[in-house]
Amino acid sequence: MAKAVTIKVKLVSSADTGFYYVTKKNSRTMTDKLSKKKYDPIAKKHVEFRESKIK
């Protein structure tokens, strides 16, 4: 069976609140680390979220 193209990644808040989002990314086309600005409800503002592995 073939390996899946899309993988699940965890986007961790850079505000160190412990809040995270789970999203999918295409591992073949997006080889670099994913980084997005999203809302952190604990910090109550938009902050940078960076990719980390799901354990």
UniProtKB/TrEMBL annotation:
GO terms for biological process: translation. This is Large ribosomal subunit protein bL33. One of its GO terms (cellular component) is cytosolic large ribosomal subunit. One of its GO terms (molecular function) is structural constituent of ribosome. Keywords: Ribonucleoprotein, Ribosomal protein. The keyword Kinase does not apply. Belongs to the bacterial ribosomal protein bL33 family. InterPro entries: Ribosomal_bL33 (IPR001705), Ribosomal_bL33_CS (IPR018264), Ribosomal_bL33_sf (IPR038584), Ribosomal_zn-bd (IPR011332). Pfam families: Ribosomal_L33. It comes from the Bacteria. PROSITE patterns: RIBOSOMAL_L33.
